[in-house]
Design a protein that fits this description.
The protein has about 325 residues and is an alpha/beta fold. The chain has helices at about 5-35, 40-60, 65-90, 115-135, 155-170, 190-205, 215-225, 235-240, 260-275, 285-295, 295-305, 315-320, and strands spanning about 110, 115, 180-185, 210-215, 245-250, 280, 305-310. It has 2 domains: about 20-100; about 135-320, Rossmann fold. It is elongated and about 95 Å long.
Length: about 325
């Protein structure tokens, strides 16, 4: 599952830190044991010499079976003595070996030809922290979405009840091939809240979510366009196109330019071609989108997105007044 590049890099860095810590701790434990018990070091050298002698016996021929049996017995005797020394010092063999956080992949992040479950869990956790650092992710839940702010208008209450139900079902059934959603309507009607509630559910299922405002992404794309060195933080276009779920907030509020409009179309079209879902929120209706981005863009949206029109009065203002 695809994540923002920063999430992947942070996950790999954390796994490397864990692996190095486990191996360094094991190395220090071994050095300490050998320092306190010189005989243990001698046994380790004798075991290595015994193994090398067995290999030479096979190559040189002669009484190979007898020589191999003799060396096997010698090896067993040395190992028993080594185990006794460990016990005398309150240790086990495992104390001198790296204790990886994940014994399956040994903190490499990959096992059996693919990403390990520990790597997936780590990316999921980091993605949540990344979003939470910028957004009130923990506050934006379906349970926290109150319909009381729409009760003054029966039509708005009915519409928003239906939208809330649809978003819950979308989140519960989310998968890599889920449909696209367009949230449109005035400011403060809950578009961001519900999109983040869906993000919460998708992240909990292990999907990679990229969330941001159209303005933020437009600035990043413009900067990377002229950053020939591809410095840190690059790869915005790739992240937007390849993440499992893209949430593009406040479309239409970004600084308008031929490049930014073309970049938005490129991202939306690429995700449609790859059949990767996106949720777009905007204050603009279809006519406003057409005026801003053109007929071709609006046609792609109208034909491939479920349109959810939000109704009511600005909830933020209602909260302030109350």
């Amino acid at each position: 599952m695809s994540y923002d590049n920063t999430v992947n890099q942070a996950a790999r860095a954390e796994l490397e830190r864990r692996r190095k810590l486990a191996e360094e701790t094991a190395r220090q434990n071994l050095e300490d044991f050998l320092l306190r018990c010189p005989r243990a070091g001698e046994i380790r050298r004798e075991l290595a010499a015994n193994a090398a002698g067995a290999a030479r016996a096979v190559v040189s021929g002669g009484k190979v079976r007898e020589e191999m049996e003799r060396r096997r017995e010698r090896g067993l005797t040395l190992r028993r003595e080594y185990e006794d020394l460990l016990r005398e010092h309150g240790l086990t063999r495992q104390d001198l070996e790296p204790r990886y956080t994940c014994p399956i992949c040994r903190d490499t992040g990959f096992a059996e030809g693919g990403p390990c479950s520990c790597y997936k869990a780590l990316r999921r956790s980091l993605a949540y922290k990344q979003l939470s650092a910028e957004l009130p992710l923990s506050e934006c839940t379906f349970e926290g979405f109150s319909l009381k702010y729409y009760q003054g208008d029966p039509a708005a209450y009915e519409r928003m009840s239906s939208i809330l139900k649809s978003c819950r079902e979308y989140a519960e059934n989310f998968r890599e091939s889920s449909p696209n959603l367009l949230f449109w309507g005035g400011t403060g009607l809950g578009k961001t809240h519900l999109s983040l509630a869906i993000a919460n559910a998708a992240i909990a299922k292990g999907f990679g979510v990229v969330y941001g405002s159209a303005q933020r992404f437009a600035v990043a794309l413009e900067r990377e366009r002229f950053d020939r060195d591809g410095g840190p933080g690059g790869g915005t276009s790739e992240s937007l196109k390849e993440c499992d779920l893209l949430i593009l907030d406040d479309l239409g509020t970004e600084f308008s330019s031929a490049y930014s409009n073309a970049a938005v179309y490129d991202v939306v079209n690429a995700r449609l071609m790859a059949r990767r879902p996106a949720i777009i929120s905007t204050n603009l209706g279809l006519s406003g989108l057409e005026e801003r981005y053109g007929e071709r863009f609006t046609s792609r949206i109208a034909g491939n997105y479920a349109l959810l029109g939000f109704m009511g009065k600005d909830v933020r203002i209602q909260k302030i007044k109350s």
